[in-house]
Amino acid sequence: MSQVMRSEIHESPLEVGHYNLRLYVAGQTPKSITALANLKKICEEHLVGRYHIEVIDLLEHPQLAAGDQILAVPTLVRRLPEPLKRIIGNLSNMERVLVGLDLRPVTAP
Amino acid sequence: MSITASIPAAGAARALAKARTGISGLDEVTFGGLPAGRPTLICGGPGCGKTLLATTFLVNGTVMFNEPGVFVSFEETSDDLIKNVASLGYDLGALVAQKKIAIDFVRVERSEIEETGEYDLEGLFVRLDYAIKSVGAKRVVLDTLEMLFAGLGDTQILRAEIRRLFAWLKQRDVTAIITAEQGEGALTRYGIEEYVSDCVFLLDNRVSDQITTRRLRVVKYRGSAHGTNEYPFLIDAQGVSVLPVTSAGLAHAASDEVISTGIPGLNQMLGAGGFYKGTSILVSGTAGTGKTSLAANFIEAVCARGERCLYFAFEESPAQIVRNMRSIGLDLQPRVDAGLLRFEAARPSLFGLEMHLARMYREIEEFAPAAAVLDPISALRGETGDVHSMLLRVIDLLKSRGITAFLTNLLSVEGMDKSDAGMSSLMDTWLSLVQLETNGERNRGIYVLKSRGMNHSNQIREYQLTSQGVKLVDAYLGGSGVLTGSARIAQEMVDAASSLRRTQDNERKQRDIQRKRAALERQIAELRAELESEEEEARKSLQRDEELEKRLQAERRAMAIQRGGNVS
Predict the structure, then answer these.
(1) Which of A13, A22, B244, B345 is least crowded, fewest Cβ atoms below 10 Å from its Cβ?
(2) What is the ipTM of this complex?
(3) Residue B217: HSE in the Cβ half-sphere, 13 Å Cα cutoff
(4) What is the reported pTM?
(5) If one looks up domain B258-474 in CATH, what number appears?
(6) If you classify domain B2-242 with CATH, what class do you get?
(7) Which class does domain A19-98 fall in?
(8) What is the pLDDT of residue B453?
(9) Do A84 and B113 touch (CB under 8 A)?
(10) Where are the domains of chain B?
């Protein structure tokens, strides 16, 4: 059930500019599947070789929800680099995800 | 699905199950508590006690009813929350450690959250579910759910999710409290009341004359009767209490038992020999007439019977009252020490009238006294109508419990106040203390203005505050009317002098008569003696005549013999 959702990890050595990302989902809903697909796409485009995605299913680990202050699902948490960032939603708005991850400066449209 | 399921339950004839809050008064107002297994909305402006009321509901739930609870805080961190409610005497930390209460702080910070596409609040549901399971919660508080609107932008999703949350809570069969800020012209800022429609409370913190009064109103309670008024409520070191003090009506029982006024002379003035138990007594008088002293005598009499007495002091501190009463030979301290007398002193300006009432209500409930003293009611500030309404409720409260009420009222020097006239109809016994000013001195006079259900004296009696308590002086009743003070003493002296004079007059008259009698008798004796001497004279002269006659006859016989003639 959750081999796709959990531990989808791309190993890469820790270095400056390394992205440690956590995606919180609650079960295998269309929203969470879309979110993970979108996230992978963004990472492959912008962070090749310097990211790490951890998927946490809150239905299996409900105790983890409080620690990272998860409210909405899906939530993407950028744990590294500091500061901690939260992006909620299915990550369909690519521009906003990039802004949220600080991969693109906020510019006037 | 949960919505359809709830319809037959609501339509069923059986009474709505209720979860008691354990908050004194609130359970009375709601006839049993909050609707069990349903969400209740508490709305109100900032600082009106929503969080504290909700916390009390949770703490009481675990402590009194063995129903663990979950507190989901959107505003305060767990530590802050624990610290804040410690002021009410709740040890939330210990309850958390004992796994009776779970606190989850949900941090919603708009600046930290980027929204990218569709989402739902399943994370909140997961956390809530986890927290509920971790303590086996029956009660849930969401404080303040509306913070979500400030933190998240998509109100459409939020509204849908909030609706789902309430349905979910109902399904879980937990009794929930949701707090919300009051909005402009609406119950809540974001219209949450649309979703929580079973039970809605409105809290209010009103300032009038710079005095704040907290009030609670049950706006709606589906499927249940409820009190509809605004009720004052208290938040202090003893927690939260709502005071359902209303005009209780006139159904109280009347007792025939008579209790002493504490002053023997005053007992005599009242036809029944004292006050009827459970009635209301008003003592009114100008400054320095001894209202508090009269109250102290009454208290002493109550305590001497081993009954409890509650003293609400509005102008003096307990220590001051105890000290002052020693000067009239009453030591109230032993009564305080024995737990028979309790003082509750507070400046009238400290709270609003409703808060005073609320505080009194709680004290009366807790102490269950046989008598209560309010000294003085004139210190209570507010519109005449408000004061009247408050006192009416105090008296109703006391009467419904059979507690004798002893109220003092300070009058301005001119005489009867408006407030006094307003009060009179509420009172069963009204004693008036007056200053009698005559001949350059003031004396204290007391009279019974009215005393329902008994014959009573119509006299103004003088009384004195002596070192042995309040003493009524025997009235001087003479031709000149009722006299007091030195006038009475002077009149008594005048009376004594005239009485002495009368006695002396009588004695003199008696002596005169005796003297006359003696003189008369002497005269009689003299006359008699005169008569006797005359009689003696007469007798002697008769004797002489007889002797002369005899001598003449003898001479004649001798002559005849000489002549030799016949002796005839």
Answers:
(1) A13
(2) 0.82
(3) 10
(4) 0.66
(5) 3.40.50.300
(6) alpha beta
(7) alpha beta
(8) 84
(9) no
(10) 2-242, 258-474
